[in-house]
Amino acid sequence: MKKIFVLGSLNMDLVMACARIPAEGETLSGSGFFTNPGGKGANQAYAAARLGGKTFFCGCVGDDVFGSSLTENLKRAFVDISGVRVCKNTNTGIAVVLVSNGNNRILLDAGANGEVTVQDAENFLRNAETGDLLLAQAEIPTETLHGVFLYARRKGMKILFNPAPAKTELKELCGMCDLVLPNETELEILSGERDVERGTELLSEYGADVIVTLGGKGCYFLPHGGEGRYFPCPKVQVVDTTAAGDTFCGALSVRLAEGAEMTESVRFALRAASLSVTKKGAQSSVPCRKEADEAEMIFK
Ligand code: RIB
User: N or C: which end of the chain has fewer CB within 10 A?
Assistant: First the structure.
């Protein structure tokens, strides 16, 4: 089994439910406030470890109580956190998450996530071997991603990139990866195209395979230079979609690291992501391996 190296953000999520998003100048009552370990990087590492992957994580936290609580949560899921650096006089990343009708809107303060350097990432990947996976997202500096992708390619690693949050400058990075995993909104920002099939075709021209996650509609997979294919996802009662995409990325990495075919890996990832939306929160919603395996029977 190959190892999974996740590079990315850690955020403490401050979550509240509301009937609708407040308009400018308006004050509304929300409910059910809770704090929950999050951050796209940490969520993906947490998911990969909980679903059975040998997982290593690199990122930065501040020297505050949120930072230690986030790293402890990864440790409890058996993520190797020796690649986490504590930055002095910096706050840990914060995400204010508003959940309305099961969907979320997120406001970020990057804090220490903005401090992750190429040097941090190269130290982290020093013991990685050919064929090991690097899984990254875009809540850390773009220059760091660029430097580390070059390094990972030289080492013969497989690079999986979730370009979230999307910005046009990430297009160049997509050409350095083996697999790019945007959602529909991110695909539109990167390709300039609303239509999923046309947008995916344009993004794949950078040279990578592409999987577009489509929420309750499953996903669309286009191997570079090949034929596109839709995968439906199981129908479930949606409670909170936060970290569904992260669970998908973590789960997919696990099956690929185990040597499974892409088709089987995608189906497994869709099952895990579907289970995650039936629970509240980010890392608190990620299923374990047994639940994801057993769901194959339930979702048939
Ligand atoms: O993808 C979900 C995550 O995005 C949340 O946990 C939040 O921290 C933001 O990074």
Answer: C
